[in-house]
Every structure is written in structure tokens, then in C-alpha cells.
Amino acid sequence: MINEIISMNGYGSYVWSAFSFTLLSFTSLYFLTKSQLIKEQSRFVSKFGSLTKEKARVAKSQNINKEILSNTYKV
Amino acid sequence: MYKYFSINKLFSITSKAPKYVLFILIIVLSVGLTEALYLSPEDYKQGHSVRIMYVHVPSAWISLGIFSIIALLSVGSFIFKNKNFSIISKSLAPSGFIFNIIALVTGSIWGKPTWGTWWAWDARITSMLILALFYGMYLLAWRVFEDKEQVIKITSIIAILGVINVPIIKFSVDWWNTLHQTASVNVLSNTSIHTSMLIPLGIMTAAFVLFSLLIFLMKYNTELIKIKNKGLDRL
What we know:
Structural class of chain B: mainly alpha
Order of helices and strands of chain A: HHHH
Number of helices of chain A: 4
Oligomer: heterodimer
Largest interface: A-B, 40 and 48 residues
């Protein structure tokens, strides 16, 4: 039965290569996008850490900045 | 209308959503793959090679759909001058491009056992290749041009010009004599595909939509954080 699923009456190489290419494209794009997101989040955190107290207070008054800090590395 | 597209409001949703979307995607994709590779029947003419349809067709549909949305948002950004439209468009483009490439590659793989060739310069395949070139130009423009106003204008023009190709892709099989078969799934008229194949096709389409949503959300968050990084520099 396993052999039947793999060979698919001679069409196995076509079917499996099409599905493998699709899943490989999915995983590549997912990890590429995730690494870009993590890079930007780390840049944001390090920039935020280098702000003076006054500037950090101003930056924290924006909700979106608080959201970014709270969601870092949780994706 | 603007309040629904405010960056603060959208970010509070998009920053939390990816983990839930990923969870649902894994479940739907697992069911879809089981249906597509094992449970669905083989075709009486094409045999098991018909299973390639379950990745080829949803990819083509989604790449066309995403490009149409990008073009619509580009028109919107011209009319409403809302920069968030261009951020949404930019975030949608990578998954649209990948689906276009998947449609071309899996179509080529499917072509070998059914038509006896990997590639044919017929109207449907060539117009899909042209769409991939438009996607490529669109993504490249975002990388090449530095000026914000200029890049929004250029990418919008590329999207609006490229969308002319979308109806050509859709109707190419009716307008010209092509190797590619005519549409089997129709919204407005009868669908010629059996339910046993239509169900896995629907599940795989849902999984692919979820994947493009996941990539969109992650990319959109990245773009917003980039903007906020520039904001911190200006403080």
C-alpha cells in the first residue's frame, strides 16, 4: 500500500515533486518573513533601550510602540 | 472609512493574529494534504497526475486574486492618499509572487505527463509568466527606489498596468486555442468537477488562503515596525 502511494502508477515522481516544491516554497517564505520580522523587532528594542528617559516616555505614550515591545519574540 | 485603516487599530490585531492563523493553517493543510494525496480518487483519463491540480489551481487563483487586490488598493491610494493602502499592498505581494511561481512550476510538472512537454508558449501559460514579471517588477521597485512618494507612484502604476493582464489570463483559454483546458470550476455556471475532487480542492484553497494571510500579517507587522524604527530616530 505504501509503495502504491509513493509510485502512484508511475505518476509519483510528478505528483510528489509538485507537492514538495509547494511545501518547500511555503517553508522558505515563512522563515524568510519571520527572520525579517525578528530583525526589525530587535532593532526596535535596541533603539528603544538607547533612548533617554524623557524620549522613552514620549515614545511609550504611543500605543503602537507598547504593542511592539509586548509582542517582541512572540510570533 | 479611515478609522478601519488606522495603523494603531490594525496593528493591535495583526500583531496577535499570526499564531492563531498558523495553528489553523497547520490543521487545514494537514486535512487538505490527506485528502489530496490519499483520499481523493484518481482521474479516469489523467490517473494520479490529477492530484497536482490540488496545488496548481489554488496557487493560480490566489496569485490572480492577490494581484487584483494590490491593483485595487493602488487605485485607492491614488484617490484617498492613504499610505496604509500601499503598506497593505507591499505586504501582500510576496505571497502573491510565490503562488504565481508555484502555479508555473507545478503547471510545468503537470504538463509533462498530460501534454508530453514541460513548457508550451500558449496563451494561458505565457500570460501567467507575464504576471510573474509584473510581480517581480513590483517587488523590485520597492527595493530599488528610496523616495517614499516616488516608490508609491511607481508601484501603483506597475500594479494598475499589470491588472490588465488578469482578465487576459482568465479568458485566454476561451479566446484562443490553447493546450490548457478551460475552467472546470465556475461560480456563475455549472461546475464540471466531481464533488470527490471539489472538496479537497476547496480545503487546499482554504489552506493556501490561510498561508497568504499568515505571510501578509507577518510582513505587515514588519513594515509597521520599520516605520516606528524611523520614528524613534526622529525623536
